[in-house]
Amino acid sequence: MEGKSEELEGEMEVEAYRRLFPLQFYERHLSDSVRPDARPLNKARPTSIVPAPLPSADASAMVKIGNTTMLSGIKLEIMFPSSDSPDEGCIAIDFHMPPICSPMVRPGRPAEAAPVISQQLNNVIMSSKLIDLKELSIASGKAAWMVYLEIYCLDADGALFDAALLSAVAAIAHLEIPPVCLNEEGRVVSSQGQAETNTDNNGNTNNSNTEKRKLTLGSIPFSLTCLLHKQYLLVDPTDEEESIMPSLLTVVLDTSGHLISLYKPGGPVLAYTSTTKNCVALATRRVKELEKILKEALSEMDVIEN
Amino acid sequence: MEYVSPEGLRLDGRRPLEMRQINAEIGVVVKADGSAVFEMGNTKVIAAVYGPREVQNRSQQLSDQALVRCEYSMANFSTGDRLRRPKGDRRSSEISLVIRQTMEACILTHLMPRSQIDIYVQVLQADGGTRSACINAATLALADAGIPMRDLITSCSAGYLVNTPLLDLNYVEDSAGGPDLTVGILAKMDKVTLLQMDAKLPMHIFEKVMQVAMEGCRAVAQYIREVLLENTKELEYRRGL
């Protein structure tokens, strides 16, 4: 009986200690190169991609990194291309953090991180040239596809950008453009099953499309967020870790090993060159893991459809 | 469009008094105190409950009961055409109010004075009956959060097309212009807490449609009970009891 009450007391103290002195709690773990959830410092949480969870969207993907859950959906719309790029479509990327994802987000008080991550995603996806906008054109100067990519955070538990980027990329990789062409009245109609060569009045050949086609992707960007604390480098932080150790560094690499983005938004800890190099090395490893996971998820999606 | 064929089949192959497939899962959002995903056919809704927690706005604090707040929003990709204003528009505000008042009726708010309970509902895919799916998801999420309630609130919709009462309308049937009735009941006590209908109906037909909707609610309640029981068994198993 006595032993049990002592045990409980011991348990209570640890939890209280964790809440009252979070930094010391973590440092005791870090000195043994481990984190409270028994992960080594350079290991990311289990990552999984759920293929096409929403049949009504034109493409969708749900990504879970540990508890962080992101759901992305794509909707296609027809638009009038702008005059300075008449044979290019457009992508609009938006990131939302609805109040369900975290106790810190409330209806009147939107999350601080949401527009930041939204902008980051825009920068990374556009600059990595993942999509060739010319593939989104239907008829030069007349009609093009507008891709609305919306990413919703359903559970915010740290490393939001990594999960958001992965889910955006998974959705884009899965997107199939329906076959359309411009008819005589200038309206866009579905051309499924029609003859291949299709020239309109001006003699411009429309994109020969008789069945749904996937976009040809450039090299795919993957990211890794690390926390910097004194001399430690923590990979893939949870929300608790991010709140007590605010200096983070995000590295985005693509599958061909090019560095796409390096993001360190201030923070009390400085990143020396060696730290940055370490991060990039860890990110390179992570890219291989993520590439494999993405490939498996895509082949699963194909199996489901066929 | 033939909403009910001569053989008695609806557009999606269901019989007039047949509900769509329902599927529910609890505890999907780890950060939330309680959460649930509820699917009715193609309508997919996720609800998260945060609370009881400290009141955000001190001036709204109630000294003798808990403050219940609710926000309903739809994902931009949830409907056929992309939504331009997923929340803050009139429909979302109205549904938020409806869900809040419906759930307030069953939460034992006097047990948690000076606190706030937030119910957030996000529609991921909309195919008719979103109001009902939201209420069902909210009930599950509240149960998952361990918030004391009088009873389970379940909801279902029904309509009347081609002289036939139809249970659980999907989007196409809903937009047909016939009457659309949404009912929310306290499952065990069999009392009605939510009743909304648009369009004209003679009284005797209204009673029929109402009965059909209540039956639907009872079926949903049965399913919700099973899901909660399954969840409790799993919790017991994990605790080693």
UniProtKB/TrEMBL annotation, chain A:
Major place of residence: cytoplasm
Protein keywords: Cytoplasm, Exosome, Nucleus, RNA-binding, rRNA processing
Listed GO biological process terms: exonucleolytic trimming to generate mature 3'-end of 5.8S rRNA from tricistronic rRNA transcript (SSU-rRNA, 5.8S rRNA, LSU-rRNA); nuclear mRNA surveillance; nuclear polyadenylation-dependent rRNA catabolic process; rRNA catabolic process; TRAMP-dependent tRNA surveillance pathway; U1 snRNA 3'-end processing; U4 snRNA 3'-end processing; U5 snRNA 3'-end processing
InterPro entries, per database record: ExoRNase_PH_dom1, ExoRNase_PH_dom2, ExoRNase_PH_dom2_sf, Exosome_comp_Rrp42_subfam, PNPase/RNase_PH_dom_sf, Ribosomal_Su5_D2-typ_SF, Rrp43
Any one Gene Ontology cellular component term annotated for this protein: cytoplasmic exosome (RNase complex)
Positions of region (Disordered): 191-211
Signal peptide stretch: none
UniProt entry tagged with the keyword Cell membrane: no
Tagged with keyword Repressor: no
Top-level taxon of origin: Eukaryota
Pfam families the UniProt entry points to: RNase_PH (PF01138), RNase_PH_C (PF03725)
Composition bias, Low complexity: 197-209
Subcellular location as annotated: Cytoplasm; Nucleus, Nucleolus
CDD domains: RNase_PH_RRP43 (cd11369)
Domain Exoribonuclease phosphorolytic, residue spans: 45-178, 220-282
GO molecular-function terms, A-Z: mRNA 3'-UTR AU-rich region binding
Family classification: Belongs to the RNase PH family.
Name the record gives this protein: Ribosomal RNA-processing protein 43
